[in-house]
Specification:
two-stranded antiparallel ribbon, alpha+beta, about 25% helix
């Protein structure tokens, strides 16, 4: 353990000594930042074809929907900081990420079988069904 401190102590002393020079530097009045971001989602091995196959199995034949996986989405971020003095500043950040990870398109309309029970005078209003 003693050999560790013998090797590391010159590094600590150098960092402390050099930070004295950094304290004399001017600070910026304001800072701005803007950037691009890309989000990639781990789909755990699921793909468009595997979801469509699973849907067909669960539906017992033809799947009424088509799935599409897009694991990546694009985005942006922006920020600004106003430094009141050397030790205090106010910062704000905003960001946005756009994209659909999973989209579903119905090929056939899902079966709708509503049960309508109205009084006789307004029974003609119920026109949903298949």
């Amino acid at each position: 353990m003693r050999h560790f401190w013998v090797r590391v102590s010159p590094i600590f002393i150098s960092v402390i000594f050099l930070s004295v020079f950094a304290s004399g530097q001017d600070f910026p009045q304001a800072e701005v930042f803007g950037g691009y971001s890309y989000l990639h989602v781990d789909t755990q091995g699921q793909s468009t074809s595997s979801l469509n196959k699973q849907c067909a199995i669960l539906a017992g034949g033809t799947c009424p929907a088509r799935f599409q996986i897009r694991p990546g989405s694009n985005g942006w971020n922006a920020g600004g900081q106003f430094n009141v003095n050397r030790w205090f500043g106010m910062k704000a950040q905003i960001a946005g990420q756009y994209g659909n990870i999973l989209s579903v398109k119905f090929v056939t309309a899902p079966p709708i079988t509503p049960s309508c029970q109205f009084p006789t005078s307004i029974s003609t209003i119920c026109c949903l069904g298949r």
